[in-house]
Design goal:
Layout (H helix, E strand, L loop, with lengths): L1 H22 L33 H8 L7 H4 L12 E3 L10 E3 H16 L6 E3 L4 H14 L5 H8 L16 E4 L10 H13 L5 E3 L7 E2 L9 E2 L10 E4 H14 L19 H6 L11
Antiparallel strand pairs: 1-2, 3-4, 4-8, 5-8, 6-7
């Protein structure tokens, strides 16, 4: 009897193994996918590559860039430049009129431009480079205290002709520099005119652009039609202010995404930021020509 039961058990095991080998285990064997399901989702890899047509490059920009470009503290100048050597470097005395920092890429580009200008008999000196929130606050509130006006709005408008509200200055980024003089008249004649003419002709080759041109005749950079110009909002003409566009354009883009007028605060007159449209007219009020310098 025991022998018969043993034989039956052996036969049953052999049959079960054979069944599973031939048909597959209905419980443990995974279902075979259709071939189309085995193709990798293109959005799951290569998200930051330029040749992936399904990726929205504008949306991926923030992800692809180093943190410097997407952190509000950098965008609004709430930083200590010396504490971030990965982004900022101290400018050598031969290039500037006082101790200052610049973004490392802008600084390297400036040194090349400085050398080229020197060969042509042109001297370029940086009067102002990176300025953080506290530095800009001292400038702003110094003028706020000394300027006389009928009301606070008129006073702010007067200061904004040539000075930025803290949290809204391009100098926060270390990409923008003031060169040789802070007086437009200096660049109209003699040595100053030669310096300015050289910059207009050569600075774009080093990716620097004069961001604050004449307010009422800013030529559209993508237009070939003579006289096709628009009114630029914001600061007055500043022949001395030049921006390193490969870095500042990315910061400008993220500033517009992440900072609102309501975020601008912490100094006298800051409550007027929204009414004055600081973000739209002043941060955004740069020359169209500069938007074409990459």
């Amino acid at each position: 009897m025991k022998k018969t039961l043993f034989s039956i058990s052996i036969i049953a095991i052999v049959l079960l193994v054979g069944y599973r080998m031939f048909y597959g285990d209905p419980v443990t064997t995974p279902a075979v996918s259709d071939s189309k399901d085995l193709v990798e989702d293109p959005n799951m890899k290569g998200e930051l590559t330029d040749d992936n047509p399904k990726v929205n490059k504008k949306d991926s920009t923030k992800v692809d860039l180093e943190p410097f470009f997407g952190e509000i503290k950098f965008l609004t100048g709430n930083i200590d430049y010396s504490a971030h050597p990965e982004y900022f470097v101290k400018v050598a005395a031969e290039y500037c009129s006082q101790a200052m920092y610049m973004h490392k890429d802008a600084y390297e580009a400036f040194k090349k431009m400085h050398a080229a200008a020197k060969k042509d008999g042109i001297s370029l000196t940086i009067l102002s480079g990176a300025r953080n929130f506290e530095s800009q606050k001292r400038i702003w509130e110094g003028k706020w205290t000394s300027r006389k006006a009928t009301d606070d709005l008129a006073k702010a408008k007067n200061i904004l002709e040539y000075s930025s509200m803290p949290m809204s200055s391009r100098h926060h980024w270390g990409t923008d520099i003031d060169l040789n003089s802070l007086n437009n008249d200096y660049f109209k004649t003699g040595k100053g005119k030669r310096e300015y003419d050289w910059l207009v002709k050569n600075a774009p080759s080093f990716k620097f652009c004069q961001v604050y041109t004449e307010n009422d005749n800013d030529k559209l950079c993508d237009s070939e039609v003579a006289g096709d110009k628009r009114k630029r909002e914001g600061y007055r003409l500043e022949k001395w202010h030049w921006s390193y566009m490969p870095v500042s354009s990315k910061l400008f883009e993220n500033y517009n995404k992440l900072v609102e007028n309501e975020s601008i605060k912490g100094f006298k007159g800051s409550e007027l930021a929204g009414k004055l449209k600081i973000k739209e007219h002043f941060v955004g009020g740069i020359s169209d020509t500069c938007k074409c310098v990459e």
